[in-house]
Amino acid sequence: MVHELPFERRTVHGHFSRDLPPVLSIDPGDSVVFSSPDAGWGIGPPSDDAGTRERFGPRDPELDGGHPLLGPVEVRGAVEGATLAVHVDELRVGAWGLTDSAGWPSPLNERLGVADGNSHTLVWQLDGDAGTGVDQFGRKVSLRPFLGVMGMPPPEPGVYSTHPPRRWGGNIDCSELGEGATLYLPVPVDGALFSAGDGHARQGDGEVGQLAIEAPMERARLTLSLADVELQNPVARIDGAWLAFGFDVDLDEAAAQAVDGMLELMRRERGIERRDALALASVVVDLRITQLVNGVKGVHAVLRDDALV
């Protein structure tokens, strides 16, 4: 069954919490269709080169300080410790997007000498049919739409920021999670309470300037089901490859988590025991920096199907 989740105040929230009541309850295998504003709650096209635009409101400064997310969606039968499978059926970006850089304070920008408070904004005109974006200087890029945030709240009560990724998902910001991808997440609370948003038209690995092409999502369709597998951290299946994710404030620890998840994937999917898998991973697994800019750093390990012939 396909459920339409309307874009309105009751269905949009700017934080994670297990205390948020679900706005929709579905059965495993059902799909959810929704639209979302850009990461800055923008709902109207930019009126100038600074990215000035109409924003969604009203907003609570304490509860809506993060990404605008649609949900939470309750998945019947999902229990703490289970695994939620999120299949990305369809993504269509809106007609515009923004990339703001240089003025955002971060350790990386400080190292680069650009955290001076003077941001530089690229305003993009997006063509979803052609799959291209053009900025105000005429530079064209191909689009690779994905949702930056797909996830569930921590199991403890309270209000949690949408900005850092966690083992239950959230602001993963992985450009590989576009149409056709399936993201597998450990379920932290009964019912799952899944939310999504933060449309991106394109992003490079690392998201080095703090923002991707942040864009409203005109239409997103996700299918939520339960998978018979036990996970410590997220993994994903994309066309021709498996991904395993790690998140931590320390990049080395994030990498270790990603490798650990990949070793378990190699055991489960290929029947390769851990000692052999680690040696083989040095030959056939690639580590990529998912993002560096959300406080908690992300690494994803990639094993392509054709790496082992």
Can you characterise this structure?
This protein is mainly beta and 309 residues long. The protein has two domains: 2-227, Jelly Rolls (Sandwich), CATH 2.60.120.580; 240-307, Endonuclease I-creI. It has three helices and 20 strands. The chain has helices at 107-112, 251-270, 274-284; strands spanning 2-4, 12-13, 24-26, 31-36, 69-75, 83-93, 96-101, 120-127, 132-135, 140-142, 146-151, 165-166, 169-171, 182-186, 194-200, 217-227, 235-238, 241-248, 285-291, 297-304. The strands form three sheets. It has a nine-stranded mixed β-sheet with strand order 1-4-16-6-14-17-18-20-19. The chain is globular and about 55 Å long. The termini are far apart. The model has no long low-confidence stretch (mean pLDDT 94).
Notable features of this structure?
seven-stranded mixed sheet, Endonuclease I-creI, 309 residues, Jelly Rolls, globular
Low-pLDDT parts are: none
**Order of secondary-structure elements:** EEEEEEEHEEEEEEEEEEEHHEE
Task: Characterize the largest beta sheet: strand count, sense, and whether it forms a barrel.
Answer: 9 strands, mixed
What count of helical segments does DSSP give? 3
Mean pLDDT: 94
Q: Please, how many domains?
A: 2
Task: Draw up the topology in text.
Blueprint: E1 2-4, E2 12-13, E3 24-26, E4 31-36, E5 69-75, E6 83-93, E7 96-101, H1 107-112, E8 120-127, E9 132-135, E10 140-142, E11 146-151, E12 165-166, E13 169-171, E14 182-186, E15 194-200, E16 217-227, E17 235-238, E18 241-248, H2 251-270, H3 274-284, E19 285-291, E20 297-304
Parallel strand pairs: 1-4, 3-5
Antiparallel strand pairs: 2-5, 4-16, 5-15, 6-14, 6-16, 7-8, 8-9, 9-10, 11-13, 11-15, 12-13, 14-17, 17-18, 18-20, 19-20
Helix pairs in contact: 2-3
